[in-house]
Every structure is written in structure tokens, then in C-alpha cells.
Amino acid sequence: MPSMATEKSDVSLAEEIKLQANEAFKANKFSQAIDLYTQAIEKNGEIAVYWANRALAHTKLEEYGSAIQDASKAVEIDPKYSKGYYRRGAAYLAMGKFKEALKDFQQVKRICPNDPDASKKVKECEKAVMKLKFEEAISVPSSERHSVAESIDFRTLGTGTSSSYHSLQVTAAAVAVALVAILMLVVGPIVATMVASAALATFLVAKKTGWWDGWTGGFLTKSQILNIDVEPQYAGARIEGDVITLDFVKKMMDDFKNQKCLHKRYAFQIVLQTREILIGLPSLVDINVTNGKHFTVCGDVHGQFFDLLNIFELNGLPSEENPYLFNGDFVDRGSFSVEVILTLFAFKCMSPSAIHLSRGNHESKSMNKIYGFEGEVRSKLSDKFVELFAEVFCYLPLAHVINEKIFVVHGGLFSTDGVKLSDIRAIDRFCEPPEEGLMCELLWSDPQPNPGRGPSKRGVGLSFGGDVTKRFLKDNNLDLVVRSHEVKDEGYEIEHDGKLITVFSAPNYCDQMGNKGAFIRFEAPTMEPKIVTFSAVPHPDVKPMAYASNFLRMFS
């Protein structure tokens, strides 16, 4: 049994360590802060603030699963500790779990009823949950959904047509269902049905008389989509015919560098042509690098367009002689995501073998809605592009194998042994990422230093050890796993006895992490990895997450 003096010493030492952790946190050294908070907890694990502070550090590293665990421990120790509920609610929010987040913020309000900040956050969270219910109410079953892309022919853009994009019946039904769903929450089912019926009748009369035509309420008509002629005064990059050339891509990148927009007519063409290429690819793409040739793998870019330009400055533009693989998470967080994705897609259209693109966990509706891409697309392009990008992201391959030896995937490996490359090829990827299974794990999992498997620090996927990596490589006659998905101080990290490399290509991530970026060059036939690191370059004064919802930025 420890003596009273020892207990007092541990308590004092824990507090000293906590203060060191706080300083590390202030310096954006979040991993170091986590290590120090852990030491404090080991000395005195009954202090709620230690757990809550470590939860916040986990949140900064996007380790939301670990943040929820720590915040839960904080409120277990002290059920009246408001920051514990606040930190857990913020982590749920970051994962898109709005209903769980609302419960925690309501508890914050109960503990601090006179706190105006708490009241404001509850109100905003209630709006988010209400919006989610609205979207669920008007959503169309997946079996009945139609391709947005197939309703648009970029070769006839600007010619105009009178046919409607959504039928009157579908639009009317959606409006009625949405009204019932919202009103039932407020006034009960009987009154809700009466109000919705009256609104539906009004809508149909208005549509018949033409009054509705002036305002589509988000239901675009095909004529609105297609009637986008290029104005004579437009001085930006232009595509002549169907062929996207290097000269066009260079001009477009230069325009983007000067914060000029690409005409929507050409943005449609780039995205639609990219879809035509991606749809024919398998879920696992094989890449062959011939002897004497090289190949470059880049990690997350996350909307940092000016750092993408720096990669091309350092390593050359994509071409058949200088091919690239960008390993997912092209968008979100950074506020130049539209510029990044249109540039990568344009290179793909220009020369499909010059650039390969793999899906990341942020190429999904749920992430784009939270982390800024959706808002940026609405601001720079249009609502219709939000739907179009969401569809095209579902066509991105999930993994690549280079020269039958190097397995490249955004996230990581699997919850069970024995997964073969043929299993990955067989994945039906044309959907939003599920919350479990092979596709989920490919996009979300992370390596861990310990052998075996463990729970995901993100709350999705899993953590896997070096033994898991080695068995997967042996089972599939491979030599190396290359993955991305995690910010690293040096832009990369070599783990699992050299059998796994993480590469991350967004330096000074979110303008605050201070990390380097990196890319990996392989040269055949040896295919030994040569890692190149680089620092962040200046960019216009547009902050990360500038296009995220006001609600999310309240908690950032």
C-alpha cells in the first residue's frame, strides 16, 4: 500500500506534468501533449480535467474515437464537469454523429443554464439534427436514384432544353414529405398532415400557373443546368472541343493561382470526362513501371492547392514519363479544394496513365458536408456540382498495386487475416463508404506499434500491428504497404520493420500543425522508396475550413 507521502508526491507530480502538457498543447505539439497527459493520468487518474484535456489533444489529431473515450472517463469521474460533455460532444460532431452530440451539449446547458455560449451551441446543434431529419425525410431510396452525371451531356452544354430535371410529381412529393416530417416534430401528426396537404395544393396550383418556375427551391431544371454558355468576356482557360490539353491545364492552374475561377461549362466537362474514365476501372488497379522509369506516390493534399503546385514544381508535372498516384483525401479542411480536385481531374482527362487517383475517407458526402468541401463547391460552382462530385467520388478506385510488389491504399489493413487482392478487386465500391467491412477498413484504418489489432483511435476502422502487415504482405506476395491518412511531423513515417510507410503531402496541415509534407519516388526495377520532404509555401489569406458550416467552426 502506498504511503500518504507517496500519494501526495504523485498528486503534485501529476499536476506538474499536466502543466507541461498544457504548454505542449499551446505549441501545437499534440502528440507530445497526449504523452504528457497520459503520464499525469498514470500518477493520478482521478482528475477529470486530465482526461478532458487529453480528449481535446486527441481531437486536434482527428482521433475522435480516443477523444470520446477520454471525455467519457472525465464525466464518469465528475458527472457535473461540463467540459467533459463539451469535449465529447465536439468529437461526436466531428464524426457527423449529430444526435449524440446534441445530447452532450444539452447536458452542458443543464449544468450551465446561464451560459449564453452553451445555449447558442445547443440551438445550432438542434438545427443540425433538424436538417438531418429533413434530409432523411426527402431522401430517395438508393434503388430509385438516378445518376446526376447521366442527365448532363457536356457536349451539348449551352444548347438549352425545356425538359425538367425532376418531374413535377417527384418534386411535389418531396416537398410534402419534408413538410410532414418537420411539422410532426413541432405540432403533431394531425396538424402536420393538414398543413402539408394545403401546402401541396398551393404548390401544384403555383406550378400550373407558372409562378413556381421562378424559384426552383433547389430542384434544378435541365434547362438551368445546360444553359451556361461561355460569355464573350470570359478570359479564363478554355477547352476546345472534347480534348483537355496540357496548355489548358497550365492556363487553368495559373488562373487558380491568381484566384480566378474556371467557367462552369469547363468544370462540368472535366468532372464528367473523369467519371467516364473512372467508371471503367477496377476497385484495385494494377500499375506497371518499366525498368529505368520512375513513379511518384503522394499522400493527403486536403485542399492545399498552393502546396500541390509546389509538389509539381519540385517533381515535375504529371505526364506519361512522370506518372503520379495521389492517395486520397484531395479535398476538405483546406479552402482551395475545388482548385485541387479540378486540377487532378484535368490531368486525369489529359492523360489517364499520367495520374492515378485513389479514394480517401474524405471523398464522401458525410465528410464533405462537415469539413468544408460541400460549402466550397456551392460557393465557387453550384449545388448541382455537390451532387456530381459525390457521385464521381464513388467511382474512385480503392487501392493500387505497383509492379506486383507495392500495395498502396489510403487508410490501412483489415480486421481479419486472409484477405487477398482478389477480395479487394471484388468490392462493389460504387457507394458511400460503409461503417464496417473491407471498404471501410481500407479507407479508415491506421497502423499501431503493438502487435495484433486494437480499436480505432478515430472511432471508425481499426488499428493494426506489424504482424498483421507482414501476414498480409506474405499472403499476397507483396513487399511493402504505402498508406496516407495521418499527419506526420516529417511528412512520412516508416513503421512495422520497414514494411509500411505513411506518406502525407499537406505541409503545415490546417495552417497550424507545423509538419512537413512528403512524397515517395520509386524507380524500377529495384522500386526502393526515395522519400522527398518539403515545407509549406505561402497561400492567399483564406483560412482552412473557411467554407465549413458556421456551426462546425463554432467548435473548431
Radius of gyration, in Å, reads: 25 Å
List unreliable stretches of 5+ residues. 160-172, 202-226
C-alpha geometry? globular
Structural class: alpha/beta
What share of the residues does DSSP label as strand, in percent? 5-15%
User: Could you give the distance between the termini?
Assistant: 44 Å
Can you list the strand order of the major beta sheet? 1-5-6-10-12-11
The total of beta strands comes to 14
Tally of contiguous helical segments:
21
Q: Summarize model confidence as the mean pLDDT.
A: 88
| Major sheet | 6 strands, mixed
Helix content: 40-55%
Structure report:
With 556 residues, the protein is α/β, with parallel strands linked by helices. The longest helix is centred in the N-terminal third of the chain and has 23 residues, at 4-26. Mean pLDDT is 88; it is low at 160-172 and 202-226. The chain has 21 helices and 14 strands. 47% of the residues lie in helices and 10% in strands. The protein has helices at 4-26, 30-43, 48-60, 64-77, 82-94, 98-111, 116-138, 168-187, 189-209, 222-226, 246-257, 264-278, 305-315, 337-350, 365-371, 373-380, 383-393, 421-425, 438-444, 466-475, 550-553, and strands at residues 284-287, 294-298, 324-326, 355-357, 399-402, 406-409, 446-447, 453-455, 462-464, 480-483, 492-495, 500-503, 517-523, 530-534. The strands form 3 sheets. A 6-stranded mixed β-sheet has the order 1-5-6-10-12-11. Helix 6 (98-111) packs antiparallel against helix 7 and helix 11 (246-257) packs antiparallel against helix 14. The radius of gyration is 25 Å and the shape is globular.
